[in-house]
UniProtKB/TrEMBL annotation:
Stretches for region Disordered: 263-283
Name of the protein in question: Acyl-CoA carboxylase subunit beta
Top-level lineage group: Bacteria
InterPro entries noted in UniProt: AccD/PCCB, AcCoA_carboxyl_beta, ClpP/crotonase-like_dom_sf, COA_CT_C, COA_CT_N
Coiled coil: none
Amino acid sequence: MAVATASGLTEQGTGDGGGRVAELHAIREQALRGPSDRATEAQHAKGKLTARERIALLLDEGSFHEVEQLRRHRATGFGLEGKKPYTDGVITGWGTVDGRTVFVYAHDFRIFGGALGEAHATKIHKIMDMAISAGAPLVSLNDGAGARIQEGVSALAGYGGIFQRNTRASGVIPQISVMLGPCAGGAAYSPALTDFVFMVRETSQMFITGPDVVKAVTGEEITQNGLGGADVHAETSGVAHFAYDDEETCIAEVRYLLSLLPQNNRQSPPPVTTDDPADRRGEGLYDLVPAEGNRPYDMHKVIEELVDDGDYLEIHERWARNIICALARMDGQVVGIVANQPQALAGVLDIEASEKAARFVQMCDAFNIPIITLLDVPGFLPGVDQEHGGIIRHGAKLLYAYCNATVPRISLILRKAYGGAYIVMDSQSIGADLTYAWPTNEIAVMGAEGAANVIFRRQIAEAQDPEAMRTRMVKEYKTELMHPYYAAERGLVDDVIDPAETRRVLIRSLAMLCSKHADLPSRKHGNPPQ
């Protein structure tokens, strides 16, 4: 009996066809196994998982569908013609996370050190194009040694294609970079273009020029981790949003983050059911926030009191600690929270805090996540370093991000809100949909003491008892211009609310705003401050 084979030819009987199938299974087994057991052992000895082990942790069991598994490079010279492993050092495909489609590519460090060549890059380009077309998140599991030197400029051009696609996908689908090994030179710019960067301590590093180059040029001696390790980028540079001790925890947190994000910019994050009552009173808030404006407290505890089950995911937790950016749920719906942190630098806005919050606001706006802003801000950080470092343009980034955002925006003034920082932190005057305040709020150009020293300078100087006069003038200023209802009387605050009712008020407001629609002026794009 004639039987059609996979090649399209016709064979007699099933023997040859069965042989071809057996050959296919053998090739697949070789591709799945990788270059050698020794290479796998070497990867594990470094405390690192293989690319396929990482994908198995990221995706739902049995959901991974690989693309171009049998791809091999076509390069010659420098011994490459004798080394043509399947996959060419990168595994690409799609699967699901909690049942939702996610695209992924993972460098296989066991093959050419995960270095990028022409075929390797083409595979990545294809899976990125598929993710954009399908409207699903893209996760890159990075563990590569940069461009494949033996392939020269062809490898470098491959990076250009990745960067171009990163930019095209920006604000369209969530892009997450997981750094699980070295990432040096131009390769570091792909993670920098994505929405979130995860790193693992000790095993992942990112830098443009390595320690050897730094030493040769500047004379400075530093280790790879000291130059571009996870802690450096999580605390100092702000390049990494998250840093973890091991790959398993890191990848588990990637799954959690994906549960809080939509598939693309045309959808909203998936809602969940919650047992936390929407009208739950927050009696503990009375004791958490001191009425005295100069006393610190932990804003994290306020957030825990407001969100579902006290659960939230903080972004950039260890960088610019004077402001908190977090994703959480309220009544099962995902919200983005921006909050001043009085425990760090009294909650002032500075260069890094402005950049951190601006980027977060833009991300929330791109992916249809409502924004709740919790204010307790004494102003911008004064100082020569801040002014010379460009606090004006950096602060303007946050202002621009809020003004440009069309998602539901609610601001809540817990305590003090002074000067330009009050305006920048999503005040009603720059487009907040609703603005609430607690009875402890103080909204003013500056603190009462500073204002009294300016306004009543002459009276204080000429008084027989300057200190007594200053005290009286401070009290007078507070009474006239800083009482809790001054802004509400002028329509700059929609309501002054009982702190214990905050969760209920915010959830009801979000429900009302869920169908908000706002059109921006027709333009190619804005020109945000840099």
